[in-house]
Amino acid sequence: MDAPIEVDTQRARFQNSTGRNIQYVDDVSWIKSKHTLQFGGNFRHIPTIHIRNDKVVGSLASLEALSDADVSTFLSAIPSSERPPTCSVTLTTGCLQSGDAQRWDRLYASTLGLVDNIGILTTRDGSLKALPFGTPLANDTTLNAVEFYGQDVFRITPNLTLTYGLSYGWQTAPKERLNRQTLVVDTSNNNQSLTGPGYIAAKEAAALQGKMYNPTLGFDPVKSAGRNVFNIDWGDVAPRASVAWTPTFDSGFLHRMTGNRKTVIRGGFGLVYDRINTVQSVIIPMLGVGFAQTISVGAPLCNASGTPGAGCNAAAGTGSPGAASFRVGVDGSLPLPTVPAVSIPVVPSTPFGELFSFQDDPNTKVGRSRAGDLTIQREIPGNMIVEIGWTGRWSDRLPQGVNFNSAPYFFVDQASKQSFAQAYDAVATALAAGQTPAAQPFFENQLAGLIGSACAGSSTATTATQFLANAAASNFTGGLVSSLFSVMDGRRTCLGLPTFQNRQLFDLHMRTYIGKSNYNGLIATLRKRTSHGLTFDATYTFSKTLDQNISNQNQAGIYSNSYFPNVDYGPSLFDRTHIFNLSYVYDLPLGKGHRFGGGSWTSRLLGGWYTSGIFSAFSGLPLFVTESSQVWGGGSIFGFAVGMIPTVNPSSFGNSVHGGVTGSNGIGTTGNPANKGTGLNLFADPAAVFGDFRNVQISKDGRTGRANPIRGLPYWNLDSSLGKKTALTERVSFRITADFFNIFNHVNFVDPTLSLTQKASFGVISTQLVPTNRDNTLADGSRWIQLGLRFEF
What we know:
Helix content: 10-25%
Number of helices: 14
Strand content: 25-35%
Number of strands: 29
Shape: globular
């Protein structure tokens, strides 16, 4: 088991989208003196019907029973008494490495069939009446997109042209035929709509003062709220301007450099707006609470169905989940969830009346990019043109998700002034070293009264710190901050104390507009126009793109740190420093009219041959040694894995394939040739490299390891073609071709995984990179030859 909820719904689910695009476009051009004026408009009416039987993850419109441990929604953490001891300096056999405690707990829960929750997706009609189990979720929406533009190409002189213009547009929010959309609201504040930045800022401010911020959330149907799921962004004004200059110098150095009207200098700047795609405009608004709801039975006890199996001890509670929890196949029929009655606004019950909700920020903005470029183009002898230039993009307001239930890891205990982060790091450091952690004031004060109470179950711990270290050791050693907050909230609920997190939902994903990225690139291009049968185009790019580890609009990802997204600021996952591409076509100088000609039949035999090819070479993508996605409390499911901190310069590791690597100390060992491994590894000594990274310390570190990545394997490939065209008559000819994909049979490998939780496969290379045009069951990434014969008439 590797997740606390059913993530494989994305394999079992079905989705159907039926969309149309009714579009009207009108453009006008008017030439007046030195001006070429252009005006136009674009109107789109976009009706869309989307039907699905899932809510991304967590449930289907059919019953599911889920098993997990440690990052569970409901199931108690596996206590240390039910796992082998943690290895230390003095204990090296019959023990678990600190990073393997979570894997053991999950094996324990899945082997015994311990049920975390039993759930199903239930849907409601436009009046919130529950529909029969198995009814899929459906939305029938319409929206409009409008754009206008104006532009002037002003040829000031024969050598100088100025282009400037302005565009303006907007996109409406989707209108659902039965109003089956909701907004998340604060029920204690007159059902005020909540925004992503506003909620996160309020929660942060409260935590720094040692206070809880958990307003009771409601989900208000748009008809009741009297508004759309998000506001129209009316401010998308997009100016742009560019200039092109052909210098004319009659003599001297500048004349020799620029030639006689053979050089063009171009520069420009523009503001460009994104569009809101179907996921954000149609799908997310239908995944809120109310018209779609995951109902569940959380952590049922072994006697829940009245037919407990052997060994059932429901009274053991959290002290022994193996004895107290419902066991699939042992304790009878699964207990069924009950569909709750709802009112307006829909208020999920506690604990976890709903597992997940997806919402659009009602104040969402359209992403934008400030784009600039400056290039110099020069014609040179040989029918060639060389161009060198810079291009840049600075983007903001990009769509990205925040989690309302991001754990406030900076929460300050007002009595001791110790933060959760400080207490957490102290315990995590001690456990990693195999030591007993000292009592931490934060845990003792925030869980006051726990020791000696029924809320501690059968634990023999004498301090709250020891209780947490025993019950949730892997939460400390594995960076599972969100899960640890869930454990603490469970105990605080039992003690009658307010919780750190909202307990109505496990996670609330809100798509908001605070993402940032930038790109800068130096581009050099050499183009040859066709002469002597040869034409080619060669381009080299030296660039860097940086972002906050954000994802595309159609992704469900959230920031690993919703409070401070810039902790992940670093090279984008697709960043390549060096990129070179070359394409060419060459008509061989054979046959009539060429250097090597001949008679009629000789010319027909020798003539018409040509070759072409595409060569590509890239430097490696950024790679990160990762721990969990919960390091900053971002959430259990949708967050991105956090990069560990390198203690040496990652460039010292290199980025080439090493052969004959067996691995050691349980690190990189799946590649051992003696165990039928590949023997290939990104590192000559994976264990040594693994030791050069440390866990993020949330009380001290302001950035993650994404700021300083390892670079993955470089790539190069040549595809080439050889062909001949032969004329039979004036109107009939035939062509034979031989296309060679990866003509040199060069192996390109997929970058390996580098995860704290998968030590055995650390750095192990086991997969070839298969081009998208291959049938990987037949050719993999090896040389592929395609022969062709074509008649033309």
